[in-house]
Amino acid sequence: MANVTSFEVGYCTHPACMALKGAGFGSRCFPSRAYLISTERSLHLWDTGYSFHFHDAAQGIYALYPTITPIHLGQDEPLIYQLRRIGVHPNDLSSIVLSHFHADHVAGLRDFPGVPVVCAAEGWNSVRALRGLSALRSGFLPGLIPADLTQRMTFVSQLPRKPLPSALQPFDEGWDLSGTEDVFLVPLPGHAIGHLGAFVREGDAWMLLASDAAWAHESIAELRGPSELSFLIQHSRSDYYSTLRKLNRLHEKKIRILLTHQASELAKK
Protein backbone atom coordinates (compact mmCIF):
# COMPACT_ATOMS: atom_id res chain seq x y z
CA MET A 1 0.00 0.00 0.00
CA ALA A 2 1.19 3.52 -0.80
CA ASN A 3 0.22 7.04 0.18
CA VAL A 4 0.21 10.20 -1.95
CA THR A 5 0.67 13.74 -0.61
CA SER A 6 -0.02 16.65 -2.96
CA PHE A 7 1.84 19.97 -2.98
CA GLU A 8 1.01 23.11 -4.93
CA VAL A 9 4.33 24.57 -6.07
CA GLY A 10 3.48 27.89 -7.70
CA TYR A 11 1.11 28.50 -10.56
CA CYS A 12 0.89 30.01 -14.03
CA THR A 13 -1.89 31.99 -15.68
CA HIS A 14 -3.37 31.43 -19.12
CA PRO A 15 -6.68 31.84 -20.96
CA ALA A 16 -9.07 29.11 -19.84
CA CYS A 17 -9.94 28.07 -23.39
CA MET A 18 -6.37 26.98 -24.05
CA ALA A 19 -6.88 24.23 -21.48
CA LEU A 20 -10.49 23.40 -22.31
CA LYS A 21 -12.50 24.15 -25.43
CA GLY A 22 -15.37 26.51 -24.74
CA ALA A 23 -14.10 27.66 -21.35
CA GLY A 24 -13.77 31.30 -22.43
CA PHE A 25 -10.92 33.74 -22.85
CA GLY A 26 -10.67 34.80 -19.22
CA SER A 27 -7.33 34.28 -17.49
CA ARG A 28 -7.20 31.38 -15.03
CA CYS A 29 -4.67 30.17 -12.48
CA PHE A 30 -3.24 26.72 -13.16
CA PRO A 31 -1.43 25.27 -10.12
CA SER A 32 1.76 23.31 -10.65
CA ARG A 33 1.56 20.25 -8.43
CA ALA A 34 4.16 17.80 -7.22
CA TYR A 35 3.46 14.64 -5.25
CA LEU A 36 5.24 12.67 -2.55
CA ILE A 37 4.63 8.94 -2.95
CA SER A 38 5.28 6.89 0.20
CA THR A 39 5.50 3.09 0.04
CA GLU A 40 6.48 0.54 2.67
CA ARG A 41 10.03 0.62 1.33
CA SER A 42 10.68 4.05 -0.11
CA LEU A 43 9.80 7.69 -0.74
CA HIS A 44 9.52 9.09 -4.26
CA LEU A 45 8.79 12.53 -5.65
CA TRP A 46 6.57 12.91 -8.69
CA ASP A 47 7.86 16.03 -10.49
CA THR A 48 9.07 19.16 -8.69
CA GLY A 49 6.86 22.07 -9.72
CA TYR A 50 8.39 25.53 -10.03
CA SER A 51 11.37 26.86 -8.10
CA PHE A 52 13.39 30.05 -7.99
CA HIS A 53 15.81 28.37 -10.42
CA PHE A 54 13.15 28.95 -13.07
CA HIS A 55 13.81 32.71 -13.03
CA ASP A 56 17.56 32.12 -13.36
CA ALA A 57 17.02 29.84 -16.36
CA ALA A 58 14.46 32.10 -18.07
CA GLN A 59 16.98 34.66 -19.31
CA GLY A 60 17.72 35.91 -22.82
CA ILE A 61 15.55 34.24 -25.41
CA TYR A 62 14.15 31.96 -22.69
CA ALA A 63 12.46 34.99 -21.07
CA LEU A 64 9.71 34.44 -23.65
CA TYR A 65 8.47 31.52 -21.54
CA PRO A 66 7.26 33.54 -18.51
CA THR A 67 6.19 36.35 -20.83
CA ILE A 68 3.74 34.06 -22.63
CA THR A 69 2.84 32.07 -19.51
CA PRO A 70 3.32 34.26 -16.40
CA ILE A 71 4.69 32.38 -13.40
CA HIS A 72 3.87 33.01 -9.73
CA LEU A 73 5.82 31.42 -6.86
CA GLY A 74 5.61 32.49 -3.23
CA GLN A 75 8.71 32.72 -1.05
CA ASP A 76 7.70 29.63 0.95
CA GLU A 77 6.30 27.61 -1.96
CA PRO A 78 9.31 25.80 -3.51
CA LEU A 79 8.91 22.07 -2.96
CA ILE A 80 12.15 21.74 -1.00
CA TYR A 81 10.72 24.13 1.65
CA GLN A 82 7.35 22.41 1.80
CA LEU A 83 9.00 19.01 2.27
CA ARG A 84 11.22 20.32 5.07
CA ARG A 85 8.15 21.51 6.93
CA ILE A 86 6.90 17.91 7.11
CA GLY A 87 10.31 16.51 7.97
CA VAL A 88 11.32 15.16 4.55
CA HIS A 89 14.82 15.91 3.24
CA PRO A 90 16.55 15.09 -0.06
CA ASN A 91 18.53 12.20 1.41
CA ASP A 92 15.24 10.55 2.44
CA LEU A 93 14.18 10.18 -1.19
CA SER A 94 14.73 7.05 -3.27
CA SER A 95 14.01 8.90 -6.51
CA ILE A 96 12.43 11.81 -8.31
CA VAL A 97 10.17 10.58 -11.11
CA LEU A 98 9.82 13.05 -13.97
CA SER A 99 6.61 12.77 -15.93
CA HIS A 100 8.28 14.79 -18.71
CA PHE A 101 10.80 17.59 -19.14
CA HIS A 102 8.66 20.71 -19.40
CA ALA A 103 10.07 23.45 -17.21
CA ASP A 104 7.16 23.53 -14.77
CA HIS A 105 7.81 19.88 -13.93
CA VAL A 106 11.61 19.94 -13.56
CA ALA A 107 12.38 23.43 -12.24
CA GLY A 108 13.20 22.17 -8.75
CA LEU A 109 15.74 19.51 -9.74
CA ARG A 110 18.69 21.61 -8.57
CA ASP A 111 17.18 21.69 -5.06
CA PHE A 112 17.67 17.92 -4.77
CA PRO A 113 21.36 17.23 -5.48
CA GLY A 114 22.34 13.59 -5.69
CA VAL A 115 18.80 12.20 -5.69
CA PRO A 116 18.30 9.51 -8.37
CA VAL A 117 15.99 10.49 -11.22
CA VAL A 118 13.60 8.19 -13.11
CA CYS A 119 12.29 9.20 -16.53
CA ALA A 120 11.54 7.93 -20.02
CA ALA A 121 14.59 7.58 -22.27
CA GLU A 122 12.73 8.96 -25.25
CA GLY A 123 11.64 11.98 -23.24
CA TRP A 124 15.17 12.83 -22.19
CA ASN A 125 16.65 12.16 -25.61
CA SER A 126 14.06 14.42 -27.23
CA VAL A 127 15.18 17.50 -25.25
CA ARG A 128 18.75 17.00 -24.09
CA ALA A 129 20.33 18.78 -27.08
CA LEU A 130 17.67 21.46 -27.56
CA ARG A 131 18.60 25.12 -27.27
CA GLY A 132 17.03 28.46 -28.20
CA LEU A 133 13.67 28.50 -29.97
CA SER A 134 13.63 24.72 -30.38
CA ALA A 135 13.90 24.34 -26.61
CA LEU A 136 11.22 26.96 -26.00
CA ARG A 137 8.80 25.27 -28.37
CA SER A 138 9.28 22.09 -26.33
CA GLY A 139 8.75 23.90 -23.02
CA PHE A 140 12.34 23.10 -22.05
CA LEU A 141 14.79 25.39 -20.25
CA PRO A 142 18.29 23.88 -20.44
CA GLY A 143 19.52 25.86 -17.43
CA LEU A 144 17.23 23.88 -15.13
CA ILE A 145 19.10 20.62 -15.73
CA PRO A 146 21.86 19.76 -13.22
CA ALA A 147 25.23 18.97 -14.79
CA ASP A 148 25.30 15.47 -13.27
CA LEU A 149 21.74 14.48 -14.14
CA THR A 150 22.63 11.72 -16.60
CA GLN A 151 24.89 10.12 -13.98
CA ARG A 152 21.95 9.58 -11.62
CA MET A 153 19.30 8.83 -14.22
CA THR A 154 17.41 5.55 -14.55
CA PHE A 155 15.08 4.99 -17.49
CA VAL A 156 11.67 3.44 -16.88
CA SER A 157 12.51 0.73 -19.39
CA GLN A 158 15.14 -0.51 -16.91
CA LEU A 159 12.49 -1.16 -14.25
CA PRO A 160 10.60 -4.48 -13.96
CA ARG A 161 7.64 -4.54 -16.36
CA LYS A 162 4.60 -6.30 -14.93
CA PRO A 163 0.94 -6.93 -15.77
CA LEU A 164 -1.52 -4.51 -14.21
CA PRO A 165 -4.70 -5.49 -12.35
CA SER A 166 -7.69 -5.94 -14.63
CA ALA A 167 -9.39 -3.00 -12.88
CA LEU A 168 -6.91 -0.69 -14.62
CA GLN A 169 -7.86 -1.69 -18.16
CA PRO A 170 -7.37 -0.37 -20.84
CA PHE A 171 -3.86 -0.20 -19.34
CA ASP A 172 -2.41 -3.70 -19.18
CA GLU A 173 1.27 -3.32 -18.24
CA GLY A 174 3.39 -0.96 -16.18
CA TRP A 175 6.84 -0.51 -14.69
CA ASP A 176 7.09 -1.37 -10.99
CA LEU A 177 8.75 1.67 -9.40
CA SER A 178 9.21 0.54 -5.82
CA GLY A 179 9.30 -3.24 -6.03
CA THR A 180 6.10 -3.46 -3.97
CA GLU A 181 3.63 -3.44 -6.89
CA ASP A 182 1.98 -0.39 -5.34
CA VAL A 183 3.30 2.12 -7.89
CA PHE A 184 3.30 1.41 -11.63
CA LEU A 185 4.59 3.86 -14.22
CA VAL A 186 2.77 3.88 -17.56
CA PRO A 187 3.13 5.79 -20.84
CA LEU A 188 0.56 8.54 -21.44
CA PRO A 189 1.59 9.79 -24.89
CA GLY A 190 0.40 12.94 -26.58
CA HIS A 191 1.34 15.93 -24.46
CA ALA A 192 5.10 15.40 -24.72
CA ILE A 193 7.51 12.74 -25.96
CA GLY A 194 7.98 10.15 -23.22
CA HIS A 195 5.14 11.55 -21.10
CA LEU A 196 4.46 9.28 -18.10
CA GLY A 197 1.71 8.63 -15.59
CA ALA A 198 1.71 6.62 -12.36
CA PHE A 199 -0.89 4.26 -10.95
CA VAL A 200 -0.68 4.30 -7.15
CA ARG A 201 -2.53 1.92 -4.84
CA GLU A 202 -3.87 3.56 -1.70
CA GLY A 203 -5.52 0.89 0.42
CA ASP A 204 -7.91 -1.04 -1.80
CA ALA A 205 -8.23 1.73 -4.38
CA TRP A 206 -6.06 2.83 -7.29
CA MET A 207 -5.45 6.39 -8.43
CA LEU A 208 -3.64 7.72 -11.47
CA LEU A 209 -1.21 10.61 -11.43
CA ALA A 210 -1.86 11.70 -15.00
CA SER A 211 0.42 14.75 -15.13
CA ASP A 212 -0.46 16.79 -18.26
CA ALA A 213 -2.46 14.13 -20.11
CA ALA A 214 -5.28 16.64 -19.61
CA TRP A 215 -5.49 20.08 -18.02
CA ALA A 216 -9.08 19.81 -16.78
CA HIS A 217 -11.21 16.98 -15.43
CA GLU A 218 -13.97 18.09 -17.79
CA SER A 219 -11.69 16.98 -20.63
CA ILE A 220 -11.66 13.45 -19.26
CA ALA A 221 -15.32 13.22 -18.29
CA GLU A 222 -16.65 14.82 -21.50
CA LEU A 223 -13.86 13.92 -23.96
CA ARG A 224 -13.52 17.64 -24.53
CA GLY A 225 -9.96 18.59 -25.40
CA PRO A 226 -8.01 21.83 -25.21
CA SER A 227 -7.82 24.56 -27.83
CA GLU A 228 -6.47 23.37 -31.15
CA LEU A 229 -3.80 26.05 -30.73
CA SER A 230 -2.40 24.06 -27.81
CA PHE A 231 -1.17 21.42 -30.23
CA LEU A 232 1.40 23.89 -31.49
CA ILE A 233 3.29 23.06 -28.28
CA GLN A 234 1.97 19.57 -27.54
CA HIS A 235 3.62 16.62 -29.23
CA SER A 236 0.83 14.67 -30.93
CA ARG A 237 -2.86 15.46 -31.28
CA SER A 238 -3.78 11.89 -32.24
CA ASP A 239 -1.87 10.39 -29.31
CA TYR A 240 -3.36 13.00 -26.98
CA TYR A 241 -6.91 11.95 -27.83
CA SER A 242 -6.04 8.26 -27.72
CA THR A 243 -4.77 8.76 -24.17
CA LEU A 244 -7.79 10.90 -23.27
CA ARG A 245 -10.14 8.10 -24.33
CA LYS A 246 -8.27 5.69 -22.05
CA LEU A 247 -8.58 8.13 -19.15
CA ASN A 248 -12.29 8.44 -19.88
CA ARG A 249 -12.65 4.68 -19.45
CA LEU A 250 -10.88 4.88 -16.09
CA HIS A 251 -13.15 7.76 -15.09
CA GLU A 252 -16.21 5.68 -15.92
CA LYS A 253 -14.87 3.02 -13.53
CA LYS A 254 -14.55 5.65 -10.77
CA ILE A 255 -10.76 5.52 -10.65
CA ARG A 256 -9.44 8.77 -9.23
CA ILE A 257 -7.31 10.78 -11.68
CA LEU A 258 -5.07 13.60 -10.49
CA LEU A 259 -3.92 16.25 -12.97
CA THR A 260 -0.92 18.48 -12.38
CA HIS A 261 -2.59 21.72 -13.42
CA GLN A 262 -6.26 21.09 -12.71
CA ALA A 263 -8.14 24.30 -11.94
CA SER A 264 -11.42 23.66 -10.13
CA GLU A 265 -14.63 24.09 -12.12
CA LEU A 266 -12.77 25.53 -15.08
CA ALA A 267 -15.69 25.26 -17.48
CA LYS A 268 -18.12 26.98 -15.13
CA LYS A 269 -16.24 30.25 -14.62
Automatic annotation (TrEMBL):
InterPro entries: MBL_superfamily_lactonases, Metallo-B-lactamas, RibonucZ/Hydroxyglut_hydro. It comes from the Bacteria. GO terms for molecular function: hydrolase activity; metal ion binding. Pfam families: Lactamase_B (PF00753). Residues 31-261 form the Metallo-beta-lactamase domain. Its cofactor is Zn(2+). Gene3D superfamilies: Ribonuclease Z/Hydroxyacylglutathione hydrolase-like (3.60.15.10). CDD domains: metallo-hydrolase-like_MBL-fold. Keywords: Hydrolase, Metal-binding, Zinc. Belongs to the metallo-beta-lactamase superfamily. This is Metallo-beta-lactamase superfamily protein. The lineage of its organism: Bacteria, Pseudomonadati, Pseudomonadota, Betaproteobacteria, Burkholderiales.
